[in-house]
Amino acid sequence: MNSFKLTIINFKRNIKTYGMYLMAMIFSVATYYNFVSMRYNPQFLKTKDLTIYVQSSSLTASLLMILFLVFFIIYSSNFFLNQRKKEIGVYAFMGIDNYKIAFMFATEGLLLGILSLVIGLLLGTLFSKLFLMLLAKAALLNMRIDFFIPKKAIVETVVVYSAILFVSFLKGYIDIIRTNLIDLMNTLKKAEELPKINYLKGFASLIIIGLAYYIAVNYGTFGFGKALLWTVILVIIGTYWLFGSLLSVIIRKLIKKKRFLYKGTNIISFSNIAFRIKDNYRTFAAVAVLITTCITSFGTVSSLRYFVDENHKIEVPYTITYISSKQEEIERVEEIIENSGHKVELRQQANFLLVPESKLVVVKASTFQKLLSDLNVEDREKILSKIDKLEDQVVYIERPGLLLSMLEKKDIKVGDKSYKIKAQAKVPLFGNGVPFPCLIVSDGEYQSLKIKFEEKQFNGIILDNPEDTKDLTFKLAEILPVDSGLYTYFMAGASFYDLVGIVYFLGSFLFLVFVFATGSIIYFKILSESFKDKGKYEILKKLGTTDIEINESVSKQVGLFFLMPLIVGIVHSIVAISVLSDLMKYSLIKPTIISICIFIIVYGIFYGFTRRKYINVVIG
Known about the structure:
69% of the residues lie in helices and 9% in strands. The chain is built from 22 helices and nine strands. The protein has helices at 3-13, 19-38, 42-46, 48-83, 85-93, 98-126, 128-138, 151-178, 181-185, 199-217, 219-222, 224-256, 258-261, 266-315, 327-340, 365-374, 380-384, 443-450, 470-479, 494-542, 547-584, 589-619; strands spanning 320-323, 344-355, 360-364, 393-397, 411-414, 417-425, 438-441, 454-463, 487-488. The longest helix is centred in the middle third of the chain and has 50 residues, at 266-315.
């Protein structure tokens, strides 16, 4: 029997072991194909304003998918190699040449990759129309999606995936050649030992993580770029030490408590965990960091969608806004509105000073108070309390449409005078009709600045049925000059909605892909533990341990393997999203809870699948 036939036999025999890997790879290939096909879809290419968003988003998502595929295939290959080292050692002991063995096992991985590529492309092609229809709906695009198979997308997917498989084939081939025969034969016979207790490292992990959280929350003090860099570095270090040292301390303390240890099947579950920490803490830490990335990323794209809905109130507090103090223009606007059939719910006029060199506007405190009251802004009393006794201080109001607030200044210059920033807020004011940051100053200071800067009059009107203002917008555009800054509900941010919708949709798919990666990594790791534990559970069964008790023990052990990195990852992600919430000046509790719940549901499915597989291995 030649080596290729032996490879085919091994491939068929181990196809069940590869089940989770195949599912993840097929889903990844199908998703990558759909990301690429976006760039070649004729319906999207016809929409010029949308093309740039689709092209850039598709390219970014595709690159992230490539990175994921490289990482996942290499990690999975290492798992399968470690899992079958004894089998490889038997072949070597029988006198089969190392190069032939390496070719057999590397080819087996290659066949697995080709199978996932073929099935993934078929599924990706089959569901491509549904994928693009969901994308169009998420981006609020009113367009028809036809079934279309872009040949360029298929070629690109095949080329990229083949290159990754070839690299993986070479790596697997070289790894087997370099492996020592003695190591192969003794892979599953290594003695297990409890990890050494390192109290200093364990408690230092909490201090390092706490320091990382402090830097993240106080990003304004340290500078956003530096804070982000150091937070990531410290969180990774702290998480590795947490699982490498502190977890050993906690498990060892629990084992010493006899009342806890001899309760139910704890003696089996926690003893196994105690012995396995040394080999598994790196995986726990990596999974915790991946969970943090998954939840934070999905929370971020969810918050973008949430931001669009909430920020719309700030961008468009009025149905119509324009800048003019000419009475005849104001009267003509009123006449057109009256003839439009719309009912006027609010008319607002407010004066402000334009500071062109600083690209900001200045509003006096009394005007600001009136605007917030007329617009019925939530928590306005809390905001208005910040403008008491301003004197040489100002309140800084973010410009409308700003996604993240990274203002690090403690003072700001207007003309030749500097003012200390007393507070910072994000509230409806003029909307995108005056797309500049606003400084709130005392009434007396406003009169002093009025001598130096030009005063303009803002006009804002709220109408009923603001969605039906297309015709009204065109009529007003005919009578108002360009410098009036006409802005209406109809004109409000259509392109930005498109971009956010696309990012949200692609981010959701990437989230699912990375959840698959996270679940698969811990699945592979726990599955390898099941083969090591098989002998132990066989002895326990001979000693009288029932299948129910074994099920209970496995559920606890696998549950803790899944639960420990999940808790750490959720805590990390909550801190990260709280910083994002502060940057956006919005409460992101809702998208955060949704992100965590979705992750837990998908993660829980992996737990159920892994637990069942573990039980099947140890019980037989």
